Amino acid sequence: xxxxxxxxxxxxxxxxxxxxxxxxxxxxxxxxxxxxxxxxxxxxxxxxxxxxxxxxxxxxxxxxxxxxxxxxxxxxxxxxxxxxxxxxxxxxxxxxxxxxxxxxxxx
Length: 107
Prior knowledge:
- The strands form two sheets. A two-stranded antiparallel ribbon has the order 1-2.
- It is α+β, with helices and mostly antiparallel strands.
- Helix 1 (27-45) runs parallel beside helix 2.
- The chain contains four helices and four strands.
- The radius of gyration is 15 Å and the shape is globular.
């Protein structure tokens, strides 16, 4: 297991506040998200014995050794969308991020 150190605030309601110098999600941020948010969510909602499947795009930090090991420790299997298909297949980009960005650019 890889250990990362990054300051964060953990509120009583489970909200986590942290920062990254360039405001991008990186390996440390993903590992923190898995340990602080996803792990607790799985424990609260019940995780099947075989684990769960996480689907995401080919963002570089998603596939680092540290992230894959952290996910494996929590029985989380990874399926990556095909490269260059995020804007076609990723639901958040289609339904939330795309329209939000388009409307923000109109301002």
